[in-house]
């Protein structure tokens, strides 16, 4: 007869009809002349039951995990008390093996056994991705990216695609990846911020989802050499409006992910205790954070007491965030520890209208600020920083041809996901993570 080719996700709609499914053998069990295959095709998992002649062939007797198969049959609801994905199973009429995976020493389970050496698992990332946890994280990642885009659309913001190859720095020279560009020096982008700022006059408020590159000296569980950077820039707004926008972006995105049954279920599987943050987020002045760290005897990386002017390093930041256990807007950092473009606080030039969003378990997931909108101030900043203004002419021009108060931010997508899905490291939230010394597979 005619078997309709389906993806596993369509199983519920196609119950009791002849269907054909194709996928990978995720689990395998034989019992009293029956063979149970849990089939995986990326859209879901389907239990298939093979009987009679179908289990007596050479292929059936030697079938291995991760082999590809094609199965024809009918999906039947399971009676109460039996359990399988979606509470049904495919009763097979016919099947064939499409590509047999090795058994024995070379078997899949020997390649990616849990608890294997981390560097072996990293080399086998292409196989690790087949696991239930890794694929769930990547599915939530896709849902989160869609939700961000939907949230931006609802705010009338436009997506742009800035260049990856650039000749300017944004976040300091020490983390630049440099390369030869037809005989000129160029870099892989650290942040698309400066380009987004140039879009305001023509496109209005904009955002991008672009890879950023950092030759990080820090080997930590939240640093990658290449990460997905969600950045946005908004015009004609003040600092308070920027903070309110960030709250809306984060909460609105989470609402959208949770409103989707499939992604909500995956999130629940990965992080059963996930709770949507409540608004408004706690605002904490940088100076109050320093006071908090002192009071709680949290030392700097050099083992000293924190003083105003100090950078708040990862360990101290985590300690504070985990202790307070709510999202925090850490605001108004000193000028000396922040980037050149940040607007100073009106009335106190030593500090900037800047914000880091901190989340329990991860720490900083967003860095943002109001930008200098005055040319003269910006020239002073280039000078203060020892930067040659000439490669930045196009950035400076924004202040010349109709300036406006504006601000924006960058959100590390892998850090956001590590927080949401409760992963130990951002490496689990990237398809093929790159970090110090790791550029394979
Ligand atoms: O705080 P950062 O360096 O800020 C900027 O790049 C601004 N120019 C963004 C802007 O205003 N448009 O980076 C922003 C975020 C951080 O909060 C962090 O979440 C993430 O990017 N991030 C990294 N994620 C993974 N690995 C790294 N090495 C990261 N460096 C920054
Ligand atoms: Mg930062």
TrEMBL record:
Keyword annotations: Aminoacyl-tRNA synthetase, ATP-binding, Cytoplasm, Ligase, Nucleotide-binding, Protein biosynthesis
UniProt GO BP: asparaginyl-tRNA aminoacylation
Localization of this protein: Cytoplasm
Aminoacyl-transfer RNA synthetases class-II family profile domain: residues covered: 138-433
UniProt GO cellular component terms: cytoplasm
Top-level enzyme category: ligase
GO molecular function: asparagine-tRNA ligase activity; ATP binding; nucleic acid binding
EC number: 6.1.1.22
Reactions the enzyme catalyzes: tRNA(Asn) + L-asparagine + ATP = L-asparaginyl-tRNA(Asn) + AMP + diphosphate + H(+)
Family: Belongs to the class-II aminoacyl-tRNA synthetase family.
Name under which the protein is recorded: asparagine--tRNA ligase
Range covered out of full length: 142 to 582 of 582
